Model the fold of this input.
Amino acid sequence: MSLDEFMERHPELSFDTARAADDKKDTPHLEACLLHFTEYVSGKEGGNFTWTADVRRQVSRHPVYRRPAYSVDEFGTLPTLSRSELRKLREPFDYEASGTTTAYGDQTSGTSGAPLTVVYSPRFMSQYLHLNMFKVAIRAGIRDLGGRQVFAVTITDNPSLGAGVIIPDPLDLVGLRLIWYVDPSDPQSIARLTTFLREFDPEVLSSKPNLLQMLLDHWETESPEPPCGPRFAVSGGAMLPDALRQQMADYFGCPVISAYAISEAGYLGSECERQKIHLDESLHERFEILPAEGAADTEPSAGDSGELAVTSLSNLCMPLVRYRVGDLATMSRNTCACGAPGPVLDELQGRTTLVFDLGGGHVLSPTRYMDLFKEHPELREYQLTQRDTRSFLLRIELADDVAPSSRPVIYTRIQNAISAGMPVAVEIAWEEHTFAPEGAKFARFRSEVSA
Ligand SMILES: [Zn+2]
Done:
């Protein structure tokens, strides 16, 4: 089936013709990045970043780095940068400094504080879109991909991309990559996905753990035969529980690989055959472990444990210097048991994503409320607590400059937006609340319902 025929059969999926053409023109760069990564994995290259005057000049085009603290020679004395600091700055980056006219925007999920707008240069975007899945495969020792019409299906419950997106491989090594939207509370939406997987049998299935768990439970009750036979499955976006990994591997009969990424920097790393996450210092300049934010400066981190930070300069729109990723981890630079050198996470105590169980097979993923801050600019913070299966408490804090007379209307509007996102009718009580300054332990979504 040709790409045109495929698109005719799936008019609901979108396809960005202009970007596909641009990415096609940029194949020499993509090939060079892929080769560089392959050599990095085999230990031939990478991991020798130094903070030079040239690097300093390059990053100083961005307002956030135009401070005396960044004019020092010693990398280890540079300030660190956190998501909450970035959010406070009006214009931290000069997007035009990258010399490009097009940039692609994204947003952090907002599960750990107000969302942050992220901008990628076209080049950074194209390697993010096209190479990540190859990198996951290469790192896990999986070879000989290609030969199926559909290479990878990434399943999302985030409706911001519509029904989904078709992404052809500009390198022509493998078939199509798809981002596919599924509404977990709609049986028809799940059935459409299942039918598609049966027909096209992709080589890779990828999603986040809570969605994988939901789909797997559904498919298992439907049939002992899985809908497709992937070469491998990828879990990202949150920690992959061991039980889910085992359940997936048993049902699909393929390896399940955990990938590690953040919106601000894309792919950070993924697991080798020994299930250790190797960080990618072929793309990013340097990873390091810092004392956790909020810990006293004098408080040494225990061994190599602390908060992971990345220095990543190849996204020219938004280079990151000693950026605090927000996850606690233990990192080692000893050669891994798989034989590959470079930084490895011995332990990752990452963010976890909560899913509300509303009973009767209905679940709610908080990603549904990702745009709440964008849609309600008066909203400063909120917290949604599940007190009983279908009963919630919503705490709302509005910006100080919202006039008292307009507050009641806004509270109601926000409460309605939360209600509208629920797949079944629930009771939502709300109250005004003033949240303490953001701390690492703040959870916007909480459940008091015991499992
Ligand atoms: Zn390894």
